[in-house]
Design a protein that fits this description.
alpha/beta, Rossmann fold, 6-stranded mixed sheet, 331 residues, 2 domains
Length: 331
């Protein structure tokens, strides 16, 4: 069974409510229809009547809840909640009303905070910052988590590496240049996410252009220090490095370049040294290896909020809805 089918089966087993705040985009409606028909979640789409009429023509919207943020009985509840949560930052009722009325992502995030939804998926036509800023202000990070990061779940066809061709790549979407402490935290969060979502023991490689000291420079030293911190602070996970990509996933290369490593040649979770490497890496695998790339999926927020690529398809939205629903179950 393909990885995404496993995730969808988990989503169907305990149905959660996922809100899609981008009713101004046709893909949102198409994804909502598909996710509803598959029984992956109870879907709420945020849209005005004009946005619905312009973008949902010809679609069967049976089973989808449609909420117009400016014509909703709970609008004042959300305004009051936002004022209360952000009063220390000087939030006024007028400013709160403007955000709740005009920024559907704030509205959706407040729905989660108020217990009216379990998670949200956005980003088809909004930036990562626009998707995550309300979550970081309103929902905040999980207790004990040092930072919010992201991952892609990669499903590579006809691949004997990783877990039957399934990998987690991190961080490919959020943290631009993590220091050693952040690299270690990303490794630990990714290990936890992989274990809970895939149901398989995470084997985590912290990647570099060097394997076990084959090169010496500041970039290598950063990853080496990240490995040291990860092993010290998160001993419950199998994390090692620094490793070149081939040493991390190919058994013969791993045994040659890092014979003492418990991870080399076996890794299923790959931690990239910075956002450039991670973003380029996942897109290379997606385009050249024809891999399915699900994400970026956020980790570390107290409730699941996930960001789509602006080039996403409606099927991508369906996949991220399923992942978000499973994350909500984990919460």
């Amino acid at each position: 069974m393909a990885f995404i089918d496993v995730i969808k089966a988990k989503a169907k087993a305990d149905v959660k409510t996922i809100v899609l705040p981008e009713g101004m985009d046709r893909r949102t409606w198409e994804g909502a229809v598909k996710a509803t028909k598959e029984g992956l979640a109870n879907i709420i789409v945020l849209a005005s009547k004009a946005e619905q009429d312009a973008n949902a023509q010809g679609l069967d919207l049976t089973g989808i809840q449609i909420i117009d943020p400016n014509n909703c009985d709970k609008k004042q509840t959300y305004i009051d909640l936002l004022v209360e949560l952000r009063k220390a930052k000087g939030m006024t009722p007028e400013e709160a009303e403007e955000k709740v009325s005009n920024d559907y992502t704030y509205f959706a995030t407040l729905m989660i905070k108020n217990g009216d939804a379990d998670g949200l998926v956005s980003g088809a036509c909004h930036s990562t910052a626009n998707t995550l800023r309300p979550a970081l202000q309103i929902i905040k990070t999980k207790p004990g988590v040092k930072l919010v990061s992201s991952f892609f779940l990669m499903e590579v066809p006809n691949c004997e590496y990783g877990y039957n061709g399934t990998f987690m790549f991190a961080d490919c979407g959020l943290e631009p240049n993590p220091d050693p402490e952040k690299l270690a935290a990303i490794a630990a969060s990714s290990a936890e996410s992989f274990e809970k979502m895939v149901g398989v023991k995470p084997i985590v490689a912290m990647l570099s252009h060097s394997s076990y000291g084959s090169a010496k420079n500041d970039d290598v030293a950063k990853v080496q220090e990240g490995v040291r911190i990860a092993k010290e602070q998160y001993p419950q996970y199998l994390i090692d490095g620094e490793l070149q990509l081939d040493a991390a996933i190919v058994p013969s290369v791993g045994s040659s370049k890092a014979p003492a490593s418990p991870v080399a040649g076996k890794a299923n979770v790959l931690i990239f040294p910075d956002l450039d490497a991670g973003n380029i890496g996942y897109k290379l695998v997606q385009r050249l290896a024809k891999a399915e790339a699900y994400g970026p999926v956020c980790q570390g927020i107290a409730a699941p909020v996930n960001d789509l690529s602006r080039g996403c398809s409606s099927d991508d939205i369906v996949g991220v809805v399923a992942i978000t629903a499973v994350q909500a179950q984990m919460k």
